[in-house]
Specification:
The protein is mainly beta. The chain is 11% helix and 36% strand. It has eleven helices and 64 strands. The chain has a six-stranded mixed β-sheet with strand order 35-36-42-41-38-39, with no helix packed on it. Strands 59, 60, 61, 62, 63 and 64 form a six-stranded antiparallel β-sheet that branches. It has a five-stranded antiparallel β-sheet with strand order 24-23-31-26-25. It starts with a helix and ends with a strand.
Amino acid sequence: MKRGFLREKAIFQISILIIAMVYFAYAIKPVSAEEVCCEKTISGDYCVYADDSNCDPTQQYAAVTCEQTSFCQLGCCFDLDEGQCYKSVSEASCLATEDAEFYSDEDCSSAASCDLGCCQIGTQCNLVTEQYCALQTAKYPELDMIYYEEIDREYECVDKCRAEDLGCCLNIDESCQYEARKSCEAGGGDFYEEEYCSDVIFCGCAEHHSKTCYDDDVYWVDSCGNTEEIAEDCDYASGTLCKELGGELTCGSVDCESTYDDEKNVHDSGIGGRRDNGESWCIYESPTGDGLDWPGSRHYRHMCVNGKEIIESCRDMREEICAQAENNGMTESQCLDNDIYDTALTSQVSTVPKGSMFWEGGEGVCEAGDTDCPVVWMKKNIASDWKCKGNCECEEAEHLKETAEICKSIGDCGADFNVMGKFTHDGFSLTSSGKKGPPSTLTDDQIKDWKEYGVYGEMTSLYQKILDYIEDILEQGGESEEDIEKALADTQTKGMYAALAGAAIAYAVVALELVTSTSLIVAGFCWPCLAVVAIILILTMTGDSKTYNVMTSCNPWVAPDGGDDCDKCLDQDKVDELDFYDSCTEYKCKSLGKNCEFISENAGTGRVACFDSNPNDVNSPQIVPWEEALTEGFSIETLEEGYEIVPEVPYYTKIEFGIKTPDELSQCKISTSHTASYDEMVSYFGDSYYQREHNTTVNPQAGGQIYDYYVRCKDGSGNANAAEYVIRFTTEDEPDFTAPVIEATNIDDYAYIASGLEEVALGIYVNEPANCRWSYSDGPYNDMENDFKCESTPGDALGYDAYFCASLLNVTEGENKYFFRCEDESENLNKNQQSYEYHLIGTGDLAIVAQSPEGLILDTISPQLYVMTSEGAEAGKATCYYTDDLTRGVELWPEFFETDGIEHTQQLQSLAQGEHNYYVRCEDKAMNEANTTITFTIDKDLIPPVVEYVYMDSVVLHIILDEIGTCQYSNATFEYGEESIMSGAGSDHHTLSTDASSYYINCEDIYENHWNKPIIVYI
């Protein structure tokens, strides 16, 4: 009973408590709310007139309208994070935004930060604040900020970039060109914005006529040669760009699917096969290393660059060698200085001897390979037989081979093969006064290994050793080129010395230490003579002894007889496959045969540069007429010693004629007077090249006159014509009724003129003596205001007689138009009835508007230089050059690999750590110049990635790193590289679907830095 009562009492008390709570809640509520101005409401709104219960209790409020409060005063708010200005914003609302500034005037007129100017980003122009411009430009690291604060009107700003708009330009000569508005309007053309010329009916250009490569993509080209829309969108980042495949332009791989196949090069199985973009490898014309390189041979560096195989010739005569190594899974090579005789070297690295001008005697280098080995023979008594007791090996056949190798390893000396694999031994000989003596001629077996193609000795790993050694120096604390140079100079490591030559690494090779005639050390092989003490002891005995000398003579290598192989100097396979002509040099030519002669003028061209001079050839070139070269309207009549051109030639009219030497290459000269020999003649017939066809143009200066031209030719053997070959024509004899002809100008029509140049000295060439004038407007000769100063005697600047006239023309920016007319000096004073119209385009300054890289670089040691040019001639189109050494003359600065546009790139290779300065000079068609310095610092990332966030999303584990990397996971501890990879490899966000309570995780960045041990993540 008592327990039931207590339960009922408790229920009653709880009910009373609940009723009381409800009653008091209503009892304490105000009867009515007060309306106030809240600086901030609970919902986050600012300056709202509302019930005071809605105000944020941490902010101000007042029982007045918001217009009457100080904290809700309206004004101008400048948001620094956005670079934007907002009018009529409350102070509270403005200052609630982080990094905002408040100004009391509502229209922002007093806020300088809110002033608008013209911001150019790429080809887009907008009227914005300077801060907004900076923020937007920062999104594009390759661009510099361009801000025109003086432009404060939107239409002016838009027009600033509209000048760069592309479209079809209908020129005043009715030709059509797809170009920028600015260029079109400068030339007075009609501009059709965003229209291709095939869309403009007045142009008559057919669309999609052909294709071209532009900016790595495939574009259509109309029948007028103008680029149209993209045909195929290649993606360099994904490994494709525009290239020719099967005769068709299409998107192809940036890699080289196949490469030049050279079966002689067995050192690299990849030769002839596929190569990745950026790979480089070595090609040799002979065996290399261990002194095996052949006379005339050269090293070449092949590269795969953007899907195209390119060849770099290492310096001729093996002044550079090519060395290669595997680096990050790709083959990498360099042409390295070959300082065999100029550097302190060890005997543990094999030689690649420099070449020499062996055909001129070898400059005494080979004499160091002469040897004299005294062989001692003895007999105990009269009855005894003679026996060899000292240096006996010098009379063995092996001695001949070893001394021959000593000789050839010095350079182009002794017995050896040439680049065609033909062997001669005239440069090496052995004589002996010995009792027995070795054989005097090398056998095929002895020289067999000299002919085996391949890379030998330390050359096989030379480049890799250099890379490894430098890496060791850097890991030991070296930071600069000076540190590396000092360490390489002071420390002998891995059997080599090395030195830093500028930014390139020189390499070490063995220098043969040739001592005395009886002590020769080479490649670790020592030839000791019998000790003098031992000889004396033997001689004191009751026997007899004799000493015989085995001597070798090391002389310059001698090329094979004849000249049958001279035409093989140019590697025709490389010409056909890679369009590569730089393979025939005098050094290689002379190695092919005694009769091979080199034509330096033809080097590096498709013309024959190496020919068989044939010393038995005593015949001079046979000269015959070249009828196809004769100016149309004339013909040839054969003379006993030449030919005559008919009919008569009008004077002051240029005429072209020529000859052939069909039986052989020749160099020809021409004269207007008799000479005794070829050498006395001064002027070449056309040019100085040795070829089979020669032509020239003349401009006869008098009427009724016979013109005789005397010709002689010389062949490659030096045989020249003794008798002169004559070419004759006669000029018409009648009064001059023809007006002068302006043949050419010394500055091209529509040429671009450099910025700031207000006057240009222009020259014109006239076909006869004349007086000439010019004007800004067309009109008769006598009305023209300005005179040319004309020479009274002709010159041959055009390759024939013409008269030069000069004057100063005024130039302003944009198109300048001029009109020229001339009057001759004949009795009739013939004047031009039509003007010669001429144009010059004045330009502004060329500017470099973007450049990279800059600052700290961690992701590569082979960055790409990049600059963008603007303004100047042709809307920024320019050629750019670079150097990292300001002591070099500008004429030695190399061009950017990709240039002659507005964007210019140059890939750098394997730079050392530390700061680098590259100096850039760009020049446009008007000779405007822009300069800049690109400064960056290369460092290596040695720090593993850092975890920024770890969180679970349902059953998926998320790990966010501070850099790109790859994460592995396991259910137990592990060494990185042994376990499964989380999703998101190659990014900073990695995920894992979980089914266990914990995981061991280790992450590695792209530089192979990972944690010492895994972290444990509990789910």
